[in-house]
Structure to design on (199 residues):
């Protein structure tokens, strides 16, 4: 009985890893940017004010792209890793949030056999591109994360991090990052069918 109680306490104290739970991916139409402006659209500096950037491979560090922004003139971008060298690139910011809020961001990319984008809130894995992405590589998608499923609501200075790791990684684009009080894609009639990924 004591061993069972100890095991239960260890499990309850551990950080929840829930990539796929509380996540939706919605195809984004041209009307979306008119309806909502992200809190960060990567129009000024890299990293943006209040953000952090970790660089392990300067050829594949998070930078800007003006070729395929979803909103505005630029988006964040990780160049293709054509040399097959290890990459471990991170773009992040620190903030607090409540259990009623949602993290959202626009992303476009291609799944790589040896590379992956993961999104973390503190120690909680909240999005795994290899598992959760269901759209074509050339289509922008809106990703929405229910922050009520995470462990750090109300904590100060929680790190929100986009980590791109691997080798021979395809290019990847990020735009319109924000935190809102409700899902942006609640009225899905404006931009097509929701790819519902609750598991």
């Amino acid at each position: 009985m004591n061993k069972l109680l100890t095991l239960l306490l260890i499990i309850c104290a551990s950080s929840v890893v829930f990539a796929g739970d509380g996540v939706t991916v919605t195809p984004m139409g041209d009307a979306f940017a008119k309806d909502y402006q992200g809190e960060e659209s990567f129009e000024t500096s890299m990293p943006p004010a209040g953000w952090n950037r970790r660089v392990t491979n300067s050829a594949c560090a998070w930078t800007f792209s003006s070729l395929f922004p979803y909103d505005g003139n630029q988006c964040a971008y990780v160049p293709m890793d054509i040399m097959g060298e290890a990459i471990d690139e991170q773009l992040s910011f620190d903030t607090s949030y409540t259990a009623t809020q949602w993290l959202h961001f626009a992303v476009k990319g291609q799944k790589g056999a040896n590379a992956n984008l993961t999104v973390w809130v503190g120690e909680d894995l909240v999005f795994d591109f290899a598992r959760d992405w269901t759209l074509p590589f050339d289509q922008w998608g809106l990703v929405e994360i229910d922050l009520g499923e995470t462990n750090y609501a109300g904590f100060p200075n929680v790190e929100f991090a986009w980590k791109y790791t691997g080798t021979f990684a395809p290019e990847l684009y990020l735009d319109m990052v924000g935190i809102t009080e409700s899902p942006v894609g609640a009225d899905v009639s404006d931009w097509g069918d929701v790819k519902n990924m609750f598991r």
